[in-house]
């Protein structure tokens, strides 16, 4: 259970640190990696949904057993981005550096799966009894 707490806590903090600056970088991203963002609603929508998920990860970190079912969509949140990056890289639509940065999500997806497996069969009563 401690493993899951640490993994989700680190993931949530990391995600907040990485995603929050994007709110202020739309123009910079467009300049440095043309073309400019043409659908800002999708860009800001992605950032907002991404940040909301970071809060979910922090909530899971507080009580992994109680919120264990939320680990499943958490894996999907991370894996779906990783899968998109693989496809985009194969289509030569993103740079290798963008791909490498995004692979952090794949690592977190794997760690989330491990967390889900490690918390299987642990009941709240067992945790309380071990205190």
Structure explained in plain terms:
With 131 residues, this protein is mainly α. The chain has one domain (2-129). The protein is 74% helix and 0% strand. The chain has 6 helices and no strands. Helix 1 runs antiparallel to helix 5. It is elongated and about 55 Å long. It starts with a helix and ends with a helix.
Index terms:
131 residues, mainly alpha, 6 helices
Structure summarized in a few sentences:
With 131 residues, the chain is mainly alpha-helical. The protein contains six helices and no strands.
- Helix segment count? 6
Q: How helical, in percent, are the residues?
A: over 70%
Could you state the oligomeric state of the chains shown? single chain
Could you say which structural class the secondary elements and strand pairing correspond to?
mainly alpha
The count of DSSP E runs of length 2 or more, i.e. the number of strands, is 0
- Structurally, the number of domains stands at 1
Bulk shape: elongated
pLDDT average, as an integer? 93
C-alpha Rg (nearest Å):
17 Å
Strand percent estimate: under 5%
Biggest sheet descriptor? none
């Amino acid at each position: 259970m401690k493993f899951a707490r640490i993994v989700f806590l680190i993931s949530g903090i990391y995600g907040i640190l990485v995603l929050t600056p994007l709110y202020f970088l739309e123009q910079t991203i467009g300049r440095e990696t043309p073309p400019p963002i043409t659908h800002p609603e999708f860009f800001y929508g992605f950032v907002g949904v991404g940040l909301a998920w970071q809060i979910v990860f922090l909530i899971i970190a507080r009580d992994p057993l109680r919120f264990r079912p939320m680990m499943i969509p958490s894996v999907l949140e991370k894996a779906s981005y990783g899968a998109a990056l693989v496809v985009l890289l194969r289509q030569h639509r993103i740079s290798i550096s963008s791909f490498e940065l995004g692979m952090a999500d794949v690592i977190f997806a794997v760690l989330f799966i491990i967390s889900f497996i490690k918390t299987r069969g642990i009941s709240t009563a067992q945790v309380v009894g071990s205190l």
